[in-house]
Amino acid sequence: MAASNINVVVITGNLTQDPELRHTGGGTAVCELRVAVNSRRKDGQTGEWVDKPNYFDVKVWGAQGENCATYLSKGRPIAVEGRLDWREWEAKDGSGKRQRVEIIANSVQFLGSRDGSGGGNGGGNGGNGGFTPSSDVPADTSDYAGAPAGGGNGGDDDIPF
How far is Cα 144 from Cα 149, in angstroms, rounded to an integer? Predict the structure, then answer.
């Protein structure tokens, strides 16, 4: 049996600029995003944890790309799932070949809130801009409503199974 190749990328980060929407000659929308993702490492000299930013170019095709251009802006936190794509071309000035690796998105998840109150719009320090995860869908806590603290068995140490 031959080994399969796997090309899957998942990142979460913040947009470093506003999305750029273009259309191909055939009318297909393509949105280009630039995402900053911080890696943490320990500085060998000081022993302090420091953030190292990594920057990724992302292409989002079709209706999803149009949505990105409409609803996203610089600083907004997003999650991207997709694949790596390598390209090579000749420089326009004839100075040689150029290459680029970018992420072709399968899905883009908008994080934070559109008005910036969820963080991401600002911060400028390369951090998460005070982002606090939130959801528009309320959590279903009905399973926990009747359970008193401590298990409700009156302190009995018997295991119930």
Answer: 10
Q: Which residue has the tokens 């470093």?
A: 16
pLDDT in tens, the chain (161 residues): 677 899 999 999 999 999 999 999 999 999 999 999 999 999 889 999 999 999 999 999 999 999 999 999 999 999 999 999 999 999 999 899 999 999 999 999 999 876 655 444 343 334 444 444 444 545 555 555 555 555 555 555 676 65
Tell me the C-alpha distance between 51 and 16, whole Å: 16
- Residue 99 in tokens: 């290459």
Residue 23's beta-bridge partner residues?
Answer: 29
CA–CA dist 112, 67 (Å, integer) = 16
**Amino acid type, 12:** T
Reduce the secondary structure of the chain to three states and give it as a string.
Answer: CCCCCCCCEEEEEEECCCCEEEECCCCCEEEEEEEEEEEEEECCCCCCEEEEEEEEEEEEEHHHHHHHHHHCCCCCEEEEEEEEEEEEEECCCCCCEEEEEEEEEEEEEECCCCCCCCCCCCCCCCCCCCCCCCCCCCCCCHHHCCCCHHHCCCCCCCCCC
